Amino acid sequence: MCQSSLLQRSNGRGHSPAAWALFPLLVAVLALLSAAGTAETFCVDEDNETGVTDGSPDNPFTSVQDGVDAAGAGDTVKVAGGNYQENVLVSEKQVSLLGGFVGGTTGDYAAGSGGDFETRDAAANVTALQGSGNESVVTLVNAGTSVVDGFSISGGGGSTIELPYGSHGGGIYVTGGAPRITNNTIEANDPRRPELESFGGGVYSDDADIVIENNTIRNNTAGRGAGMAVFRGAAVRIAGNTVNGNVGVQDHGGGIYVASPNATITRNRVYGNEIGRELGYGWGGGILVFNPGTVANLSHNVVFENFASGQGAGVFIDEGATATLDHELVFHNETKSGVTGAGAVYVDGGVFDEIPMGSRVTIINCTIAYNPPPDWYVGGNGLYIEGYSEVTVRNTIFWGNDGDDFFVTGDSSLAVTYGDSEEAIAGTGNIMQDPLFADPDAADFHLKSAFGRWEPIPKDFVNDEVTSPCIDAGNPADSFENEPQPNGGRINMGAYGNTPEASRSPQGGEGEGEGEGEGEGEGEGEGEGEGEGEGEGEGEGEGEGEGEGEGEGEGEGEGEGEGEGEGEGEPSIEDVAEEVLATFNDADGNGDGRLTFAEAQSQVSELTQGQFNQLDLNDDGAVTENELEEVAGVTGGCDCRALFEFLGLGKSLGDLLLLGCVLLSASFWPRRL
To answer: How far from 268 is each of 62, 66, 209, 255, 547, CA to CA, in Å?
Structure first.
């Protein structure tokens, strides 16, 4: 009956054929809404003292575990700020655990007005999960793509799952699945038990495609991997974390311990961690990459002030692992007196079934500097290689490591090109000159330049009286596209080469500009962009001009006539702000209203760290919509987000799609009865 009526109206009486053609799309959208509508949200607030709890905003649960137990696969548990003294288990289902909501007061719930579970600020509404000391604070067992976001997690005593063989995961224990551990503070956890091995004081993960991102992981203790220990997992991502003050009391891994066939370790700050101090031996104070079959890509990490009783206080690659160190900054890491050295980077192999198996490491555009030597050591305080290992180094600066940058045993090999070091080493493009760091005492390892050096505060370029010999000294075949103009058409050495914070060059790059001149003299021209170049013009004479592409520039003309050229440059910061703003909701996966660099770059892949720094007006490591609108100069127009909120639609995909369906359905409404 309904179908025949609809077909009858489609015969020119009710709506256009174009609208009827959209009917399959409407059906698909309704099906999507139906599927999405099965997900539920449960609320938790310890301040509800009414004794009535059903997980609603008016009557929230008072225990996080009650919320998890009530949740089904794909559901969300929203937790208000407060102190929850409990251990939480998520097993065999996918649940999103989100902390930092405003919630309500005891009086609000008693009066029946309920709590606010839409407004979320994890910093202002600290949501503390305080463990009992005899179990991991949060345990995820085959929990799919579950999320743990916005909590303070402490007091964990290690999982009981693997007893009596081991005690692992003080703060968070994960096995299986592909969970996301994001935006938490994980501190003061200790999984050690007498006579048992213990891994992962802060986080332990085994056989999971885990993402550990934008957390602070500090002051945890374990035998190995005191900050975190991650094993197996087909795809592991460790990004944007601060890992500091963690203490490993056994012999491997103070900060980060990784043994995975596909690990990405990027943009972390790893400092003040230690391994084996009381034991008297130990390796890998900051980052440890371990085991045959392990493949790890380390990039843009800052590793400093870590300690190891043995070698590799900063970074240790061991037991046949494969690793790439790309744009790493490794400084002020220290080993104890009497060891073989390797305060910064140590590469070792092993023998397996009587077969030698060395580690394979590539080091690209790193700065490995001022790692202080112990009172006595053998050598190689910058880079030590042994155990049938092979290392290649390119565009990297070794300086301030007591003048003893390299040590290679007879069974291993090292190849260095386009590097700067105090210790002489053969190789194409290698130099031995002071790199002229901006201020190594203040941990500023940007290269001095009379033509512009990045100054972290106030986030701008300044001019020095001297220029580093490492500028435009990297491999000519390597990309320099991310370096600001003028960049000399060649990559810089060191950790800031081919980044927006690369020091500027004494000569311009290639490009075309726009300039005008008449007769003999000078003229001015405008172009769009930045960069210097030459342009040839046609007219009543010949002219040459220099200008800037996509911006404003000056040109010089010789002879008679007018000349014009065109150039292209980088997008303006206003355009970048608009692009990030347009994808804000998609990037803000945790719904906290703030985008980290990693979140923003997940939607705007070409976004650079330098551009993000310009968008971050208050320098807090994240950008908000207000900051983006201020940079973009957005004024007036329709505030669609406010409109949706006014209509009660919020931010959810389902609600927005529902609005679309309502509008689409209107096209089917008969124009006349």
So the answer is: 35, 34, 19, 11, 39
- If you ran DSSP here, which 8-state letter would residue 365 be given? S
> What's the pLDDT at 28?
52
Give the pTM. Answer: 0.75
**Distance (Å) of CA 603 to CA 58, 200, 238, 589:** 36, 31, 18, 11
Neighbours of 661 (CB within 10 A): 16
Examine residue 261 and say whether the peptide bond preceding it is cis (omega within 30 degrees of 0).
Answer: no
Angle at 64 between CA 182 and CA 197, to 5 degrees: 65
Q: Has residue 207 got a pLDDT over 60?
A: yes
Q: What single-letter DSSP state applies at residue 431?
A: B
In which element (H, E) is residue 65 found? helix 64-70
Distance (Å, rounded) from C-alpha 162 to C-alpha 173?
11
- Answer whether 195's CB lies under 8 Å from 221's CB: no
pLDDT of amino acid 570:
58
Amino acid at 81: G
The whole-angstrom separation of Cα 555 and Cα 512 is: 11
Listed as own residue / partner, the contacts of 64-72 with beta carbons closer than 8 Å and 24 or more positions apart are 64/88, 64/97, 64/129, 65/89, 67/42, 67/43, 68/95, 68/97, 70/42, 71/40, 71/42, 71/95, 72/40
Length of the chain, please? Answer: 673
> What is the distance between the alpha carbons of residues 112 and 134, in angstroms, rounded to a whole number?
37
| Backbone conformation region of residue 144, classed left if phi is above 0, alpha if psi is from -120 to 50, else beta | left
Reply yes or no: is the peptide bond before residue 179 cis, omega within 30 of 0. Answer: no
pLDDT digits (tens, 9 = 90+) for 280-333: 999 999 999 999 999 999 999 999 999 999 889 999 999 999 999 999 999 999
Q: What is the pLDDT of residues 456-506, one digit of tens each?
A: 998 999 999 999 999 999 999 999 999 999 999 999 999 999 999 999 998
Give the whole-angstrom CA distance, residue 588 versus residue 603.
10
DSSP single-letter state for residue 61: B
What count of Cα atoms within 13 Å lies in the side-chain half-sphere of residue 78? 24
Secondary structure letter of residue 174 according to DSSP: E
By three-state DSSP, how is residue 317 classified?
Answer: strand
The SS3 call for residue 580 is: helix
The CA distance from 333 to 330, in Å, is: 7
CA–CA separation, 196 vs 163, rounded Å?
A: 9
- Token pair recorded at residue 403: 């003048």
Residue 479 burial (CB count, 10 A) = 11
Residue with tokens 């050598």, as numbered in its chain: 379
Long-range contacts of 655-662, Cβ-Cβ distance < 8 Å, separation of 24 or more: 657/29, 657/32, 657/33, 657/36, 658/33, 660/29, 661/26, 661/29, 661/30, 661/33
Nearest to 212 by CA among 308, 138, 124, 130: 138
Q: Do residues 418 and 474 touch, judged by C-beta distance below 8 A?
A: yes
How many CA atoms does the CB half-sphere of 560 hold within 13 Å?
2
Distance of CA 306 to the CA centre of its chain: 21
